[in-house]
Amino acid sequence: SSGINAEWPLRPGLLAGEFMKQAKPFIEDGMNSQIIIRSFRKATAFALKKILEIQVTVKKDDPKEQRELLKKCASTSMCSKLIAYNKDFFADMVVDAVMCLDSLMPLNMIGIKKITGGSVTDSQLVKGVAFKKTFSYAGFEMQPKTYLMPKVLSLNIELELKAERDNAECRIDNVEDYQRIVEAEWTILYDKLDKMVASGAKIILSKLPIGDVATQYFADRDIFCAGRVTFEDLNRTVKACGGTILTTVNDIRPVDMGLCELFEEVQIGNERFNLFKGCPKAKTCTLILRGGAEQFIDETERSLHDAIMIVRRALKNDSIVAGGGAIEMELSKELRNYAKTIHGKEQLLITAYAKALEIIPRQLCENAGFDSVTILNKLRQKHAQDCSGGKWMGMDISSEDIADNFIACVWEPSIVKRNALTAACEACCVILSIDETVKNPNSNYQAPNAMPGM
Question: pLDDT per residue over 43-58, tens digit each?
Answer without folding.
Answer: 999 999 999 998 888 7
